[in-house]
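Forwarding the complex inputs:
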Amino acid sequence: EADIYQTPRYLVIGTGKKITLECSQTMGHDKMYWYQQDPGMELHLIHYSYGVNSTEKGDLSSESTVSRIRTEHFPLTLESARPSHTSQYLCASRDRRGAFFGQGTRLTVV
Amino acid sequence: AQRVTQPEKLLSVFKGAPVELKCNYSYSGSPELFWYVQYSRQRLQLLLRHISRESIKGFTADLNKGETSFHLKKPFAQEEDSAMYYCALTSNSGGYNKLIFGAGTRLAVHP
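Prediction (whole assembly, two chains):
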């Protein structure tokens, strides 16, 4: 079934660890996005991509990086996690109808 | 700069009352506007977009370019409409591919 998947759903990790949040979509969309959102609060765009090998930083300064080697895969990496990175991370892809979101990854850095 | 403003953090109404969730935008080009909804413990999902001019779950939204607004309306609110509602903006022209969201409005419909 065409969908967008994020793993893991929940992650608790220690300060200084490197982590990668996975996002995959099976809809063949070129445009993909990463947002940071505290529950029930504003969505902040941190990265976006228009296609393979094309990524841009969003409006919210972030210490994370992304890659887009394959159309369906848009992972987000934090080289050294800090407590200030504790948040929910939402991945989305879009076509002309609109954007489709994953379930999100709830990250807690202790 | 592109911006989406939702002036109300919380809108509280009784069941059967009319609802209007406000959205104003700033964008110099030709924007495409959306409303997204997030029900409790569910993923964010598309509610409607201005291009399709449709009514979804009784909600409608009209793009007013003069007032740069895209308010979401429903004549009779239901308890199941309680959720977070986000207005969003993007453009289909040129290389602009950002999808920008407003801060969101929580709609609480009381019995």
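Chain A has a mean pLDDT of 92.
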